[in-house]
NADPH-dependent 7-cyano-7-deazaguanine reductase (Hydrogenophaga atypica), 285 residues
Amino acid sequence: MSDTSAQPEHSPLGKASAYVDQYDASLLFPLPRLTKRAEIGLPGAIPFLGADLWTAFELSWLNLRGKPQVALAHVTIPCETPNIVESKSFKLYLNSFNNSRFADAAEVLARLRSDIGEAVWRGSATPGSVGVKLLSPEQFDREAVHELDGLSLDRLDIECTHYTPAPELLRADTTQAPVTEVLTSNLLKSNCLVTGQPDWGSVRIAYSGHQIDQEGLLQYLVSFRNHNEFHEQCVERIYMDIWTRCQPTKLTVYARYTRRGGLDINPIRTSHPQPLPGNVRTARQ
């Protein structure tokens, strides 16, 4: 039986929230992945690998003498976790560090790993870990800005008439020899599942197999424009629609969404083992 309290409508999202500036791990609000995965035909085992790459740009705490410290945090959450963390609760949780004293950055890092790991793996019979990396101010200027590599679909002069997901627009040419190519678009937009606020993103699709019709693929990506779903869920829907409709032999879908509340979320889903991309932001992030 599912936990009805762990649903988006019960999260802090879209509600007035008290500003808590003393460390409180209970502010993290996990949401089960299974609910939305069942909508795309995944009630059990998932047919992909990947992770959700988060960047926290607003992380601060006090040292033992009360002096503020700042850092950036890169967080890697495996897609095998039973839960995601609702993003506003993540922000409230990070805010709770603001006036809390810690011995050093290592203590902060340990708390982040433990708290986030517990939330996303909650309910798992075999809980795992999450990756967290802190960057000190001395490392900030090493943070690169780079656009997604690939052939831009946005160059195409197309007519768009669908603004809710239309997988029927996807098609592949089975009469020609298979290809391997990487396609990108900056036209991905969806809306928050709870508040309806816009989520802007760029997406990179790498595949091998029968050539996917590029105009249809771009029209399909545009069709998410009025769709209400969290970032992670949109990427999994895109992955499964392409996998089912175009039947590539290999597929990777990677999206980078613009930040909101000092956080960006960048899901990647892939059919085959490969190193995760570096968490490098795009110019819009």
Q: What stands out?
A: The chain has five helices and twelve strands. Residues 8-142 form a domain with the GTP Cyclohydrolase I, domain 2 fold (CATH 3.30.1130.10). The CA atoms of residues 60 and 70 lie 4 Å apart. The mean pLDDT is 94.
